[in-house]
User: Fold these one by one.
Assistant:
Number 1:
Amino acid sequence: MKRMKYIVKTLKYMFKNLWCIILLGLLPAFVYAGAFDFIRYEEFLSEFFTGKLLECTFSDFFCAFSAINVSQWYLAILSVIGFFVSCLFMAVMIALIEKHMRIGKRTLNGIFSKLNDNIVATVVVAFFSGIVYFVWIFAVSLAGVGCVAIFQNSAVAAYIFFVLLLILFTYLMLYTISRILLWLPCQLITGFRMFESLTYAAHLVETKKNPMLLALVLPYVIGNVVLGVCALGGTITLAPVVFFIYLFFFLYLGVLMEVAYFEEAQMEREDLKPAYKRRRV
């Protein structure tokens, strides 16, 4: 249960305060769902689960996993817009949650004035995380075409090695993100410079890698399994699933960063106290 503490505390905060944070995730989720490449994703799953892995190309692997829809130029632009929209609303949500945990208030007073500081840091951290994600996409895509080329006469071997490499690269991606998960709240709360806050964030999770990693792995796996299963129902049923999964991930990551930072920095959370015990500010 101790290894699940971040998941439990994050979900507890999310559902307790859902009414005041969910509005911040609706537009990012809507834009992302609109830019999602439903056709290529469903085609890849169909080929994968019907024994046609050897027919997949680099483009099939890349488009199925990519967060940027490159099938049409306007969808690619929409994907980029979605990135900046997500950064904007994440910056607001982080400021709101941080204020709530620090002084016990959920008001919007002073939240938007912090955007000048928050938005730049949020974009930088999101961009760096995006690089990690796209390195994973290229690695998985290269692994896929490599398995297809090497095991052209043995579909079973191709499947086994591809799945093993997929698990390995996914672990490395989530491990890397777990090490920088506290980078953003560290910058915004401590006021450290970018490199100093990254070093400090990595130090905070140095002895907490397992709980932090599990807090990313479990929802990531469950979300992708749900998405994959629902993809069998077709594009019409998949669109709302993509929307709600991205909405959940968006809110979950924002809350997880703050929950984990307050926990590891050993900061007292005012939102957990009764109103009469909170600090007066």
Number 2:
Amino acid sequence: MKQYIINTPQLQSLQKRIGALFAWAICWVMWIYLLIPLVTLSSWILGDQKMINEMRWFGGYKSLLELMQIYFVTLLAMVALWLCWIGYRMLRRRAVLPSADKIVNDAELCAFYQVKADELQQCRNAAMITVYFDNHGHIIHLDPHINNSCQH
């Protein structure tokens, strides 16, 4: 599993924060874009006099049909982009997976996570492990909880 669970957003990089904010803004703009014509259409159908006069001013049913065509084409373009994005992510995941099968020895694992070899072995034998991190997300201490009934 390559997904990370971050309960402290201040540990996320600036690039990830900006990316998440950008995705959030794009999604809300798309929702608003999709909902405004529906609100307008509902007001017109329900008989709002101001909206009826406005629809007459802009061409009535002919204008509505033109707007519906634009609306439908835009919706299809958004779905096409979404499907392309899903396809790209699937292809990218397939390309990344073979490298995920790389075998790592204990020395490399200890060096990457900055833990001692004896701590690693104790954690492998433990039923539960408590991991302590510093403010930057680096492991500072491992506390293996060894179940005495399982040991030989």
Number 3:
Amino acid sequence: MVLGGLMYTRPWAHDVFSILMIVAAVSAVYFTWKHSAWVTGHWLAMVPVTGVILGFMGWLWGYTLAYVTLWIAFIHFVITDLQSLRAGDAPGAET
């Protein structure tokens, strides 16, 4: 998230952010496939990677798309985790 913000002030941050996004996407797809845990929301998680690809192709707004959708995904995961905690679905919760 910090590197995404640095993209607007430091030119080198584009490349580092892009590499980290691609590594994260590849590892997410691998572990999701390995554990047969693919859900519809994972398709939405690929939008930041699409933005990075667009940025590499010369459309600089692609990096902004990647950064904004990464924040949306982060907020989504925080909200769903909080909902799970309130419902007592957290790992290790007493049942």
